[in-house]
Amino acid sequence: xxxxxxxxxxxxxxxxDSIIPTSNEEDIQEFMKQYDPGSAYREHQCWKRxxxxxxxxxxxxxxxxxxxxxxVTAQVLRATHLAFVMLLGFILYPASRKMPLxxxxxxxxxxxxxxFSAWMYIVINFDTLVRRTGAYLPLDIAVGVVGILILxxxxxxxxxxxxxxxxxxFIVYAFAGPWLPGFFNxxxxxxxxxxxxxxxxxxxxMGTPIGAxxxxxxxxxxxxxxxxxTGIGQFFIDICNAIAGGAxxxxxxxxxxTSALExxxxxxxxxxxxxxxxxxxxxxxxxxxxxxxxxxxxxAASTGGQIMPPIMGAAAFLMAExxxxxxxxxxxxxVIPAILYFSGIFIMVHLEAKKLGLKGMSKDQIPRFLPLxxxxxxxxxxxxxxxxxxIEGKTATFSALMGILACAILGVAAxxxxxxxxxxxxxxxxxxxxxxxxxxxxxxxxxxxxxxxxIIIGIVTLTGIGLKLGAGLIAVSHxxxxxxxxxxxxxxxxxxxxxxxxxxxxxxxxxTAGAIVGLGFEPLAAHMFAFYFGIIADITPPVALAAIAGSxxxxxxxxxxxxxxxxxxxxxxxxxxxxxxxxxMLLINxxxxxxxxxxxxxxxxxxxxxxxxxxxxxxxxxxxxxxxLVGAGLLLIMPGLTTDIIGFAVxxxxxxxxxxxxxxxxxxxxxx
Length: 672
Fold this sequence. Notes:
Elements: H1 3-8, H2 12-19, H3 25-35, H4 46-69, H5 74-92, H6 106-124, H7 126-131, H8 138-158, H9 161-176, H10 191-199, H11 208-230, H12 232-244, H13 250-262, H14 269-287, H15 291-304, H16 315-323, H17 327-333, H18 335-356, H19 369-376, H20 381-391, H21 396-421, H22 429-463, H23 465-476, H24 481-496, H25 501-511, H26 513-518, H27 523-535, H28 545-554, H29 558-568, H30 570-581, H31 592-614, H32 623-637, H33 641-657, H34 665-671
């Protein structure tokens, strides 16, 4: 290889090592374990590792068999899925994150086996339970109690306290109804009724969320594990550096672009922040950004990854199941809002770089786009395969299987080529085993969250509290849409604090989306509204897990970082209101010309809002200029020809005034 070719194939990881002290792999894992409960898992050695590996392989084997054969009934599939999740959950996750991760106490083995046995009780006795539905034995009740309690403990370990406390509150509500005032009052239910409804009924733990998890979400998790092993995350960082690394404030723009791309396959705001932030945050600080701003850019962009189709942190699949609409409809609906969200952050990053006079990286620090794309662009093919089959109208399950098959074929083909060249093969049998292990481990947090959401949904269907909560929000707001939306926004942010993406959507949609639908708005828009604000809780003080994770890398003040991230993500606080009032933004009952107009006017509007908040375009803006820029931007984002014309005219005037020398404070000061 020539010197020129070596330079062309250089990755940003190689480059960053030479210009900044980046975090090593151990540091990254430590950040993840500290801020993401699902990452604090045990890494067993010796015989304990063999046991966990064999269980993981059996789990994946069962899931693939059930999908390919279609011979497993829905309830048996869901119960077996939960059985494996309970067993692996207690083997891999300690009772406390302060406990050593290289031990396996006997009580965890006992809890894992007990959880596995409780759910396998349904599988083994399925026909008997079906024949005597409603006539439950004392043993049935006891098994149900054990299964529910162990699910709660698994949730505490893997998904955290928020969803566990919310589910527990709903269970208490099922018993306490007769003593509660107002619309919370209900006749109450017996212990047996609550346990059997939650454990054995498909409206409880084994309801729609766990059904989606056990079928196609697992396959997409496995697909993500394949992509992770191929190194697509590093490719995203490299290609984004090739595109934007040389621009003003290059590393910050790279963070935005990388997070948007990683969001297409990732399922966690925190993991996105730590994964790409370990490279981009130190580079931003090296360039001249303050630590708070650098961490905020990464946190805001990484959080946006959860609203970026096609995967959206697995919420897209659950949304499709909940609403009974095709998955592709949800993915398409998320496109324009996601584009506007990332555009808003990108604009503010650009203006901040201009305001501070920051330059991009030098040419010798940036990988070349074409050689890089030609060398590693094939990594994008499996993602393209999934998108192609979804567009063709295939099911999410079929599309995921085709994506996995494409990953496997590419991995084998690349390895064969490596062997022919005399190089070390890129993938071997051990790599495929590690992919299965990763898939089995990554599904645990999602499955536990889905199971707990099933408890919430089960109590909602049992007591009818969902309709009452929606009616209550409407009553408090006196049926005024904007007030109802505001109250729903606040509720969704509070409910979403500290919850994983999947649990986040299931909680917010179950409890708050009904109020919006009750006012006659589009159901998909209502669910997207609740989901957006649940997700934005990851950067909204006081919890702001993604912002805090970013601040740990940047060594910045956590709350100052969270406030800055909230400012950068201002689009996420505006866009949901817009698509509720204008469902065309979600590609509902619209035309291509309307879509182009919506995107164009909204992007100009985001520029106005961003410039107003940053206080800079070509020069610093005066207070009254910032006021007009934000107001005009909001008018452009709102639907309507009149508001578009007024907003565009005002922004054009404000930009024009930037070129009037007499209004430039710096030039006036020099003149004086």
